[in-house]
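[09:14] KT: can someone run the structure on this one? pasting the chain below
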Amino acid sequence: MNLEWMAWTQVTAIFFLTVALILIAMTLAELRVPTVERQGFLPMPTTRGDRLFLSLLLAAFINLGFVAFTDVHTLWIPLSVSVLAAFVMMRFG
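[09:31] RB: done, C-alpha cells below
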C-alpha cells in the first residue's frame, strides 16, 4: 500500500480503516435491528451509537494519558485497556 502522499504509517492506515469498518458494522446493525435508548451505568439514556462514540473518546483519552504519563514505548497496554473499556461501555453503559 503506497501511503507516501501523506505522512501516514501503515499502523495509522489500519487504525482509520478499523474505525471505518466499525462505523459500517454499526450502520448495518442499526438497519437490521433498530436501537432503543436504555439506561446503563451512565447517567443518561444512550443508544448504541452514543456508547460507541463515548468508547472511542475514552480510548483516545486512555492512549493519550498513557503516552503522557509513562515512559513505556509500547502501546499494547493502553490498547488492551481501551478494548476492555469499550467492551464494558458497549455492554453495560
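[09:33] KT: thanks! The radius of gyration is 16 Å.
[09:34] RB: yep, looked fine to me
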